């Protein structure tokens, strides 16, 4: 019997490790973004050497109303045509596309002659690895042992980007919480025309002034800053009253590790405080009238943990949809009579979850809500208070029928939660079998 239990536990552990493998967010074109490139083969060279795996995401950074991104078959890709597009084109930047299937994927800009000038991307997506993770011998091409980790590009604000945040001063504080910034890393600021980013001293940061700026302000997006030295870094927007409304970021950069990590001590350190999570509502589908009706957003929320301090990002077409928080009564009858706060009709809209309890959101445009554009979630006080296998349910519809869901809310997904639920389910089934 002990051998059977050990076998079950081992297999469940393998499944957990397999499904909790880190998923990668690829920022297309890096700092160049998604635009007419300097050379026709620019995006082909960008993709060369990269590994794209099912579960990864592509982030296309472009200027809204001036560009778009459309997935197409190979024939349309070769002809620079969107006649046979796969899904709808996305006209609001930044756009996130999740890679859900293996095979060749083709993307173009359908604006004017952008594709003919090289704004097109072809990649090959591989299936997730099917073997358990095992140690491998060091490769001759591996980085030197003195480098503890590869440089990381931090996309400031994630899908929200660099703008006046809905959460005020705390939005970018929450975004930076729990992240590690190391010499060699970089920050990527995505913002709209008419905005900028400037590095300043702490005094200017506190006063929201650019009198003591460090270097030139950058008013062309996307803007990248590299960390060349450890210490405190301060960034603001110098436009009008943007800084005073929360468009400011302070981080601490540490020196790169100079050698291998020391062995762990016998003392158990306190568990780290979970970092706030940004959930992109509906993932790549965004906030729209869903094809699956009201069940679509119920399934999207199932299996996710929403905690105080987290954020919801609603990506939608401005002037077509909006988002409004309402009471349960208004949610059930698709009414905005009992609204909580003002409706937001400019995309992307970010809502910071400031209190525990049930939260309800609808679109007030036309019959959007009646057709399924509504979301109900339960917010807990702290992520550490929720077991890994907990299943979030729609407060209005009862427990979800499946522990799944449509995936992570951001490049920063709930894969671990889903994997834990799968492992627990498999564990129970195998025990019943024995």
Major β-sheet annotation: 4 strands, mixed
Helix content class? 10-25%
In angstroms, what is the radius of gyration?
23 Å
Strand adjacency order, main sheet: 2-7-6-4
Mean pLDDT: 78
CATH class categorisation of the largest domain: Mainly Beta
Report how far apart the termini are: 9 Å
Strand content: 15-25%
How many extended strands? 21
**Which structural class do the helices and strands define?**
alpha/beta
Global shape = globular
User: What is the CATH architecture annotation of the largest domain?
Assistant: Sandwich
- The CATH H-level superfamily of the largest domain is Cupredoxins -  blue copper proteins
State the order of secondary-structure elements, H for helix, E for strand: HEHEEEHEEEEHEEEHEEEEHEEEHEEEH
CATH fold assignment of the largest domain:
Immunoglobulin-like
The overall number of domains is 3
How many distinct helices? 8
Low-confidence stretches: 5-9, 11-21, 131-147, 259-265, 386-434
Describe the protein in words:
By secondary structure, this protein is an alpha/beta fold. The protein has 3 domains: 25-126, Sandwich (Immunoglobulin-like), CATH 2.60.40.420; 153-254, Immunoglobulin-like; 278-430, Sandwich (Immunoglobulin-like), CATH 2.60.40.420. Helix content is 17%, strand content 20%. The chain has 8 helices and 21 strands. It has helices at residues 2-19, 42-47, 74-79, 170-176, 202-207, 295-301, 328-333, 415-433, and strands spanning 25-27, 52-53, 57-60, 70-72, 95-98, 103-108, 120-126, 153-155, 181-182, 186-189, 198-200, 223-226, 231-236, 248-254, 278-280, 306-307, 311-314, 324-326, 349-352, 357-362, 374-380. The strands form 6 sheets. The chain has a 4-stranded mixed β-sheet. Strands 9-14-13-11 form a 4-stranded mixed β-sheet. Helix 1 runs antiparallel to helix 8 (415-433). The longest helix has 19 residues, at 415-433. Mean pLDDT is 78; it is low at 5-9, 11-21, 131-147, 259-265 and 386-434.
